[in-house]
Amino acid sequence: MTAIVASYKDAMTIKNVRDDLISTGIPGEKIKVDKDHFKVRVMVPERTKAEIMEILNRHEPSEIH
How much is the pTM? Predict the structure, then answer.
């Protein structure tokens, strides 16, 4: 498992990101949302990292790592 953290500009965007991740089959317990700092942290298997990065990038993060 690997963690991916993305920062966004507002709370609405992180809600949309979370909804997008869940709709693609990522379990809710693998997604952590920091509403105070507008960050989303996702724990994913290495083999699905590229797919998750694509989803996160759709929402135009200010930073991703």
Answer: 0.91
61: CB partners within 8 A, 6+ apart: 6, 7, 8
Q: Would the CA dihedral through 12, 10, 58, 20 be positive or negative? A: negative
Distance (Å) of CA 40 to CA 44, 47, 65: 13, 19, 11
24-65 confidence digits (pLDDT tens): 999 999 999 999 999 999 999 999 999 999 999 999 999 999
Number of Cβ within a 10 Å radius of residue 61: 22
